[in-house]
Amino acid sequence: MSLTLSQQRATKEEFKQNLALSGLDIQTIAAALGTSKPMIEADLQLRPARLEDPWILRNYLIEQIQTQGKQPVPFTALKGDYHQYWFLDGERIDRGLID
């Protein structure tokens, strides 16, 4: 699945807002997800190594924001049950690691 240019812009902005809302820095997120800072930076810009990586980052940010009692900014393109998307590896997303 490819995102339109409009969806890409919106998703990048949603990542930016949720990153700020989480209060976490990229290095902390990278460590929690078992990856590197450059990999997280690439995911934030929608240049992932794997299609599942932005979903893993999305889920992590949402969880961290909700744990803080805050409401995350909704994602307009990365939504729905990723298990239902034939092109995504739902088990990989469920593991929650970007490796």
| Fraction in helix | 40-55%
Rounded average pLDDT:
96
Please tell me the total number of domains.
1
Distance from first to last alpha carbon: 21 Å
> pLDDT under 50 segments (min length 5)?
none
Order of helices and strands: HHHHH
Q: Compute the number of strand runs.
A: 0
Strand content: under 5%
Structural class: mainly alpha
What's the helix count?
A: 5
State Rg: 12 Å
**What sort of overall outline do the alpha carbons produce when their principal axes are compared?**
globular
The major sheet is characterized as: none
How would you characterize the overall build of this protein?
The chain has about 100 residues and is mainly alpha-helical. About 55% of the residues lie in helices and about 0% in strands. It contains 5 helices and no strands. The protein has helices at about 5-20, 25-30, 35-45, 55-65, 90-95. α1 packs parallel to α4 (about 55-65). The protein is globular, with a radius of gyration of 12 Å. The model has no long low-confidence stretch (mean pLDDT about 95). It holds the Pfam family DUF2316.
Topology, please?
Elements (H helix, E strand, L loop, with lengths): L4 H18 L3 H7 L4 H8 L8 H15 L22 H6 L4
Helix pairs in contact: 1-4, 2-3
Write a concise synopsis of the structure shown:
The chain is mostly helical and 99 residues long. It is built from five helices and no strands.
